[in-house]
Amino acid sequence: MRKYIYLYVLFLALVSCQDVIEVETPTGEVRLNIDAHFRVYSEERITGKVILTETANFFEDEIPKVSGATVFVTDKTTGDVYEFLETGFGTGVYEAQDLGFLNDFETTFELTVVNNEDSYVAEANLIPTVPIDRIAQGDLQVFSDEDLELIVFITDTPNEVNYYLFDFGFDLYEPIDDRFFDGNTFEFSFLYTEDDEVDLQPGDVVTITNDGVDKQFYDYIELLLEQTQGGGPFATAPATVRGNFINTVDNANYALGYFRISGASALTFTIQER
Question: How far apart are CA 10 and CA 5, in angstroms?
């Protein structure tokens, strides 16, 4: 793929000259991306779907969606199979009629995605979480006077190694492990900044969700967040962050993305005057 960048050089005589520089941007191999994230709330409300897309080059305007795939989840204890159907041709979104079968901490579930001649599989267990006790608004400002601080309080389950992923909306996440506060009440601060391009005003309502995750996903999301911060099209290319899917037909043609099932706790908060 080629893009042309025009550099304008202003001479002392204030006469501008235009040079054309041809820049080769790498075209990566197209890979399937599988987003399969399910949440099991304490009130037995379960949400989630499987979204299939393909990787696209940096300058592409749209992310290609994958239609016509076969998607199903197998309960590895009972052997029961649950089919996921595409919500409409061309959407790349696959949903099950009922997700109640996922509410089982004792079962390992296997997700299978068959696309073209490849078959991708991943396994997941339901990981418990703890409720969000409360949310408070702080006055910490680090980068500008537009920074908005929210403080989240949880009480960790004792004598267990726990990993959490906090979802602050707007594609903003914070992974946390309990190594320093096992079994205790813990509070931490999160800043919405100008760089997040989030404009929260008094009276706006935000929902914060605490997902239970395992060590493998915790390491995955930390690396993924590191890779997606900063840079640009001409920065050093980040390493590929692989999820938990395996191609059982051609291991070299691996898929990106992750299959996880999280116990979830959500709490809303109304932004206050500052």
Answer: 16
Mean pLDDT within 233-244: 67
Reading the block at residue 245, the tokens are: 């899917």
Q: 190 with 152: CB under 8 angstroms? A: yes
The three-state secondary structure class of 65 is: strand
Residue 182 has pLDDT above 80, yes or no: yes
Q: Is the pLDDT of residue 17 over 90?
A: no
Distance (Å, rounded) from C-alpha 235 to C-alpha 184? 42
Token pair of 230, please?
Answer: 């900063």
Phi/psi of residue 37, each to 5°?
-120, 120
Q: Rounded to 5, what percent of the chain is helix, strand, coil?
A: 5, 45, 45
Degrees (nearest 5) of the Cα angle 102, 104, 107?
Answer: 95
DSSP E strands in the chain: the ranges are 2-10, 16-24, 32-41, 46-54, 70-75, 81-86, 93-95, 108-115, 118-127, 132-138, 148-155, 163-167, 173-177, 185-192, 205-213, 246-247, 256-270
Tokens 């696309």 belong to which residue? 115
- Cα–Cα distance list, 130 to 154, 160, 161 (Å): 7, 12, 13
CA-nearest of 153, 100, 103, 163 to 131 is 153
Q: In degrees to the nearest 10, what's the CA dihedral of 240, 241, 244, 246?
A: 0
Q: Average of pLDDT values for 17-45?
A: 76
C-alpha dihedral, 150 to 151 to 157 to 163, nearest 10°: 50
- The single residue listed with the structure tokens 């590929």 is 240
* Sole residue written with tokens 């409409």: 88
Specify the amino acid at residue 260: R
Please identify which residue in the block is written with the tokens 């979104």. 93
